[in-house]
Amino acid sequence: MSITQRLNQIVETLPPEVTLVAVSKTKSESEITEAYAAGQRIFGENKVQELVRKWEVLPKDIQWHMIGHLQRNKVKYIAGFVSLIHGVDTLRLLREVDKRGAQEGRIIPCLLQVHIAQEATKFGFDKAELTQAMDIIDQGELSHVQVRGLMGMATYTDSAPQIRAEFQYLKSLYDTFQTGREAFDTLSMGMSGDYLLAIEQGSTMVRLGSSIFGSRNTA
Hints:
Elements: H1 3-13, E1 19-23, H2 29-37, E2 42-45, H3 48-57, E3 63-66, H4 75-78, E4 84-88, H5 91-104, E5 108-113, H6 127-138, E6 145-151, H7 160-178, E7 186-191, H8 195-200, E8 205-208, H9 210-213
Parallel strand pairs: 1-2, 1-8, 2-3, 3-4, 4-5, 5-6, 6-7, 7-8
């Protein structure tokens, strides 16, 4: 099955309120171009250098999302064009994004990443840290970031009940912090292996790579 066929098949099954991010990390420009020709405009990358290179050569109406772990010293390279940063996982990183947004003269949309998985290797805020970050945002201290919502990755497991419970927890946090915040409209959870569970639990944005592009390249 071609990229176009897989993409169309997925788009047909997604509810209208769910945004699809095509995870194009390690994928070639020609593969991305095929998805683009099929109508996809939102692509996600997890490495800054690769993201910048693709942004430079591919159509400028593509919305590029940074979906991987982002180091503070790399923010400056994407601050001028990135459409959404999914993985803001510390207050220090949020402040850096704000600083670089000010330098670029733009407000950078972000999601705050919440640690919902059992693996210690995953990044993200806990509930107390999340509350602190949102308080700072509400005080207007950071004027060049716009927190659009939350992102989280479930534990890598075959246990659907565990994944469902982790997504339920993230959705409950999202509902709590969404109250009274008009721009807080995005809940990014769900990847190729668990996006149907994520949508069932209220996800508004899913990040799909292998479901669209086929088996992952290791380059």
